[in-house]
Write a structure and sequence with these properties.
Blueprint: H1 2-26, H2 40-43, E1 48-53, H3 63-71, E2 75-82, H4 90-104, E3 108-113, H5 134-137, H6 140-154, E4 158-162, H7 167-170, H8 172-188, E5 198-203, H9 206-213, H10 217-225, E6 236-239, H11 244-253, H12 258-264, H13 273-279, E7 282-289
Parallel strand pairs: 1-2, 1-4, 2-3, 4-5
Antiparallel strand pairs: 5-7, 6-7
Helix pairs in contact: 4-11, 6-8
Amino acid sequence: MKSRLLIFILIIATVFFIVVGHLLYLSNFKGNEKFPKDSYLETEPNKTALIIVAHDDDAISSSGTTTELIKKGWKVHFLSFYGKWRKQDNPLRKKEVEHVAKIQNLTSIDLIDFSIQKTDTVKEPWMPVPYSEFPNYFKIDSLKILIQNAINKYQPSVIFSLDNITGAYGHPEHACVSQCIIDVCNEQKLSDSFSVNKIYQAVYTKTMNENIIGDVPVYITAKKVYNADGMPNPDVEINIYGSAKEKKAIMNAYKSQKRNLKKFWPYYNWYPYSIYFKIFDKEYFRIININKQN
């Protein structure tokens, strides 16, 4: 009997030390850098935001922040595109977004059937292409019209997107959509009816860039093609632990994308939200200010 008890205790102790060791390893992936806390979102009177992403799961990067805003009375709208690449998955992905909308209590979701790329014959559409080639690859004029229509419809003060430098890990559609958002804002900012004040681009810190995706082939190629060190540096950090439960539920809702999500949120599926987001308790943003005076 004593030997069984001893074996049980040894098993429990072994499991405990393995878990603790793995959590210490996981903490190496978090951002160790410090950035100013965001203050703008607390004081903006027009509590309306618009998420614009090339692919629905891209919005996970800012989902903790947008959930926090909704809890504080913001209206948050969602816009994403669905092209011909793996189009058989589109119905399922749209249902996943509908689930996400219920988790977050999003005000509206616009899931637009629109191929950002001009052709569906590109074998690896996620691979970076030079900025100068964007007009040859992407339907930029049509994309900008869709973005402008959404801005006019919802009148947001803030747009959430990915960055326009590397498009997160290097996907050119990410970079293209984010650049089109900036272009539309700059083109329309002098209009009396234009509402956007800031664009919040979800990014990693330099530590996260190198430790999470530093050896991803697409990211390595992106740094060369875009002549960049990685994603642009954050301007602010936002603590999202208060919405950790919702963020984990959102990540779990994208069941069809689990294989990809694990590359960018390592081991998120291993731990409950209360543990995982004690480590990854912040979201980081580069802020583009829309100067309406010039």
